[in-house]
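Input:
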Amino acid sequence: MSNTTQKKTLSKEQILSAVIVLVFYVAVFIAEQTIPSTSMLFTVLKKGATYALVAVSMNLLNGFTGIFSLGQAGFMLIGAYVYAIFTIPLAQRASVYQYYNGGIVQTTLPVFIAMILAGLVAAFFAFLIGLPVLRLKSDYLAVATLGFAEIIRAVFQWDKIGPLTNGSNMLRLFPTFNDFNIRNASGEVTIYLSTLVPLLISGVCIALIVLLINSTFGRALRAIKDDEIAAEAMGIRLSSHKQLAFCISSFFTGVGGAMLAMYQTTVQAKSFTTAMTYEILLIVVIGGIGSVTGSCISSFLFVACSEWWLRFLDQKHMIGNFEVPLLRNGFRLVVFSVIIMIVVLFFRQGIMGTRELPDLFRKRPTDRKKGRGIKA
Amino acid sequence: MSDPVLKINHLTMQFGGVVAVDNFSMHINSGEIVALIGPNGAGKTTAFNAVTGVYTPTSGTINLLGQNITGNRPDQITKLGIARTFQNIRLFSSMTVFENVLTAHHLRKTSNIFTATLRLNASEERKMREDTDALLRKVDLYDLRDEIATSLPYGKQRLLEIVRALATRPKLLLLDEPAAGMNPQETDELGAFIRRIRDEFDLTIFIIEHHMNLVMEISDRIYVIEFGKQIAEGTPSEIQNNEAVIAAYLGGDDL
Ligand SMILES: Nc1ncnc2c1ncn2[C@@H]1O[C@H](COP(=O)(O)OP(=O)(O)OP(=O)(O)O)[C@@H](O)[C@H]1O
Ligand SMILES: [Mg+2]
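Output:
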């Protein structure tokens, strides 16, 4: 058997997968230079990149560790705020924090440092709530994390900490994805990077998560998901490994929050609702619980459907004198919900089940899909 | 004389009103194969769960090689050198045979989450994989290496659970009804296998089993419990001739 040699170098399937990813990035780069930057394609790619990172982070918990957490919106909020607070240029603080005398934070960090800080602060909050919450059994854990996200949302709008968070007012004027574009002296864009860079940031983070999943720690997490009692009997300490997974997932969710801030160009606590967490959960379920590739693909599909492809459903259409029935504002969401229900009812494995990109090229359809259950 | 590998002193395990194990004491010396037998519901599995930290004893102490391990967590106890299998097989269902055994190497890692993620532990990881393959070869499971563990025939799954426990490098191995669901031929092979691993891996073995032929063949000593209390202790021939045991247990159709 060639298994032992395969382990040392990359397999054919892995190389093929890497090539596909590379081609994707090159295609995005070329598209960005040639297609007008107002195209919906770029909106979808930017938001898709953001959601993909958050969805993969959630999958790390739900799909690979068996922790059913619903705190995503809360950790994204923390990440978005930390990023925004620490990147608004000094000169703009007076106008942004107009009701709070320019706010108390008077330092501005480089974009990438601020993104990492966003992740670290989210991870720190995860560490604090993880201590009590991770002892709970699945449903209670879901409720507790959901509650945490709601509390965070309320606290960040609290007037008393306004000098830090700007209360219920918007944070704005911080660097956004458009600032990744390279401009010449007269301010015209020479190289468009506002879509490629977010995709790269998200790609690097997801690659790190994949490396983690395939390490000895990732195996320990999967063992915990499969059977906690057996995992413990193999010498795996449940509390510390769950805590680790929770903090790492929250770190990347925080980074995702920072990306969302950049995508939206403004940040306001009240928009980080439970509905946002459900969107991420749906992406994970549709992609396949336990498949990183699935989460990525379904993020882009989900965003494309909700922001782009199904938009026409919200507009009145006339064929001659005949007005097409049903098409009106809000109908898109109805169709969208129906699609989701169909997927959840009839395609429970999601798009990918538990398979990953390289598995798609293996001749013998990988026997993994039998093994890993999909129920969280 | 050195300390016994396992020493249980006056163990009592109570669930609400049920006293599953009642003031039970025993010991196992190094290299012994000792069996724990008794009718269904006698408290055998509960005793195992108390030894491995799944339950905290209501009272009594448990010592491993002279060290008091009462109240330790299961993962700590495994690291100290007790490994086990389960009466109702608990393999990792999403994993292959290889991955199941590989996961049991995690407890000896020296890497942390960062070095492992960034692959700075490559040599350690390679060593884990080589050790896993070597172990699978040794026990003739290498051909099934890439199968999903739970897709194996029942007997192989039982065997794999033992091998996975071995990969934690225990001093004491606890087997909870390893022959359950095996056919007569597999049961015979299991007896030889248990002896073999005892010798090759320098093990001490504590086994719960209902197959009396197997128990009598491999055990150095046997403890018999009923309703959580010890009713007899001795060599296989002593147990076979013990009136109390015959009345309580061996007289039944288990023989
Ligand atoms: N977690 C628990 N909660 C309540 N009662 C329990 C628990 N675990 C075991 N018991 C009870 O303790 C008694 C002993 O059970 P145990 O599983 O130890 O028996 P056993 O000797 O292993 O039997 P078998 O041969 O059927 O495996 C039973 O009455 C059982 O119902
Ligand atoms: Mg039992």
